[in-house]
Design a protein that fits this description.
The chain is mainly beta. The protein has one domain (75-292): Sandwich (Jelly Rolls), CATH 2.60.120. It has one helix and 18 strands. It has one helix at residues 2-23; strands at 75-76, 87-90, 97-98, 101-106, 116-124, 130-139, 145-154, 160-170, 176-184, 189-196, 199-203, 219-228, 233-241, 244-247, 252-254, 256-257, 265-274, 279-292. The strands form two sheets. Strands 1, 3, 4, 5, 7, 12, 13, 14, 15 and 18 form a ten-stranded antiparallel beta sheet that branches. Strands 2, 6, 8, 9, 10, 11, 16 and 17 form an eight-stranded antiparallel beta sheet that branches. A hairpin with a 4-residue loop joins strand 9 and strand 10. The relative contact order is 0.22.
Length: 293
């Protein structure tokens, strides 16, 4: 009987345990299930391209050669483009005829461009009809070093055989020193002047130049360097053209004439010679200045 009652007691206990389990919350029975989407692992942003390195510093320009350095105490003429003293004529030592004139200011590329002094002439009887423009710009018989600097513009180089840029100085003994250089199509060099037999003569040099290669309607920086001694012998030092400086070799000689010009006068010349039998030569100068020391 005791055993039977014990069995009954166990059976009564089991249903009670089962009932208790059914009454427990679901969370206590099974682990929770997340309804959120999984978070992806953190990523590192990668740029689409490698950034360009910072721009390199511009190259340091090569130092000017000693002969092309204008001393700080050199005497400058000031810009001569707008001077009212310009005069002009056909060069009587050339063939044919030319009727030059000059105007300032003229804008060869329109008002958006630069103003310059125009040197224009119809010509005939060429080739080598010469138009000469000249300007007295100072008085100095003592200076011996000179730099003729300007920006030059040819409208149509096919009409121009020579571009001459020179200056004269009447020294203390009354003679006139000729410091003459020209870019010549004949020799395709910068030619220089010396005097013999009471006349000037052109000589080809080691520095190449041809107006035909300058291009139409382009400004070019030109600087010409020369010097003289007390006797009137001239040494042509070199040319800087668009920043390229080249030194003359064996370009020197006597270059003074007794012309009975105004004592101590300084005179600059600009000349173009024709390349064809007839037509127009049209060119410009700006920032024209002569330095002396």
């Amino acid at each position: 009987m005791r055993e039977t009652m014990k069995g009954i007691a166990i059976m009564r206990f089991v249903p009670a345990v089962l009932l208790l389990l059914t009454l427990l919350p679901v969370s206590a029975q099974t682990p929770p299930v997340s309804t959120q989407a999984p978070v992806p692992p953190a990523t590192i942003a990668v740029p689409n391209s490698i950034p360009a390195p910072p721009p390199a510093a511009p190259p340091t320009p090569a130092p000017l050669p000693a002969w092309a350095q204008i001393p700080s105490d050199a005497i400058g003429s000031g810009i001569l483009d707008n001077s009212k003293g310009w005069a002009w004529n056909h060069d009587p030592y050339t063939t044919g005829g030319a009727q030059p004139t000059s105007n300032y200011p003229i804008y060869p590329d329109g008002r958006q461009g630069f103003a310059g002094r125009q040197f224009v002439t119809p010509y005939s009887g060429g080739p080598y009809a010469g138009a000469l423009w000249h300007l007295s710009f100072g008085r100095d018989s003592q200076s011996r070093h000179f730099a003729y600097t300007a920006k030059v513009y040819l409208v149509d180089p096919t009409h121009v055989s020579n571009v001459e840029m020179d200056m004269n100085q009447v020294i203390s003994d009354g003679r006139t020193v000729i410091l003459g250089l020209q870019c010549a199509s004949g020799s395709k060099t910068w030619e220089f002047t010396t005097v013999s037999g009471d006349a000037t003569h052109w000589h080809p040099s080691n520095i190449a130049c041809d107006p035909a290669t300058w291009g139409a309607k382009k400004w070019h920086d030109v600087a010409l360097f020369s010097e003289r001694d007390e006797q009137g012998n001239v040494t042509y030092n070199g040319v800087c053209f668009d920043g390229n400086c080249q030194q003359f070799k064996n370009a020197s000689g006597p270059s003074a004439l007794a012309l009975n010009w105004t004592p101590h006068d300084l005179l600059l010349n600009y000349q173009t010679d024709s390349a064809k039998s007839s037509g127009f030569m049209d060119s410009y100068l700006r920032d024209l200045q002569i330095y002396r020391w």
